[in-house]
Amino acid sequence: MERELPLSKPDITQAEIDAVVDVMKSGRLSIGPRQDRFEEVVAERAGQRHGVAVSSGTAGLHLVLAALGVGPGDEVITTPFSFVASANCILYVGATPVFVDIDPVSLNMDPAGLEGAITSKTKAIVAVEVFGNPQHMDRIAQIAGAHEVPLIEDACEGLGGVYRGRPIGSFGRAAVFGFYPNKQITTGEGGMIVTDDDRLAELCRSMRNQGRGSGAMEAGLDAGSWLSHERLGYNYRLSEIAAAIGIVQMERLDELLEARRRVALMYFDRLMDCPDVILPNVSDDAEMSWFVFVVRLSAEFGAAARNRVVDGMKRHEVGVSNYFPPIHLQPFYRERFGYQQGDMPMCEAAAQRTVALPFFGGMDATQMELSCLTLKLMIDREKLLLDRAPSGDGPGVERN
Description:
Largest sheet: 7 strands, mixed
Shape: globular
CATH class of the largest domain: Alpha Beta
Order of helices and strands: HHEHEHEHEHEEEEEHHHHEEEHHHEH
Strand content: 5-15%
Number of strands: 13
CATH superfamily of the largest domain: Type I PLP-dependent aspartate aminotransferase-like (Major domain)
Strand order of the largest sheet: 1-9-8-5-4-2-3
Number of domains: 2
CATH architecture of the largest domain: 3-Layer(aba) Sandwich
């Protein structure tokens, strides 16, 4: 066994490799039948009629906002507890992100806070299923509908999940999935927009392909059509190679989800008796799509203590990370918008104590024990240092 335990690892079999070889032999590397098929299977899983394959989840969010006409002077409500792309895509179209603090249990956007944040300037809501948890998404959709504000699901972490009988990806005007190597399925790099809105899908297909119109979407047309651009567009296409990998991964999706669920249950079994660790909360009416396994240290630990736990685990060759630093406290957002510590107290309190543990479908019992024992060891070490804090010396003097 390798000594180093990675934070994540893609699940690739010979079937994906063979699919790539088939594409290379076909001579059709872009805008072909595999893209079309990949779009179909992802849209079907999300309960939507249209899929639009793109080069990343970030690109998908950008295109949806642009297709909805969001721009300068508009506000878009989103969460501060996510990967930074959830907010960056709002800036791409010239709009202003408005952050709503999170529910401290689910770690998703607090619906009560959302209700109070909607104004006449609100043009869209970007709601994230954080770590694949769909909790509150139905309530968020109700609020968006009542105010006639489009809801965009940032479902990049939630493919395959279900909430109250509805698949993740079916709650908004559009949803966007991501396929980075640490996700439930991967295409290397890639993403997918899903929607029931015919016009929105058409606009996104055009804009991903340099603004070409529907009459010039297929390669091999005459040069005049191929070089005709109806609107501002981007090079956000997904290659046939990536789509071929995605098709095979989608055929294996239930297998992949079950493997990740098995690993999550192993973590619950081994950490549920650890009073210093807060395990992920999953509501009874949710079928979680496990993206990562993120625990929080108990309230006595602050950011400095958490960081020492993370650093200690890394020194023992266990891959861990601090998911997610608050977006509003990222240097760029603080400088541009003037956010300060304390502006989003629930998000900040959660973020300073998170530890993302090694998580991938192929984890075995030995790797699981290595992860959990190392976590407990580093926590116990930190508690000993904290007990020495009153002496005024040693690392334990700083408790937060």
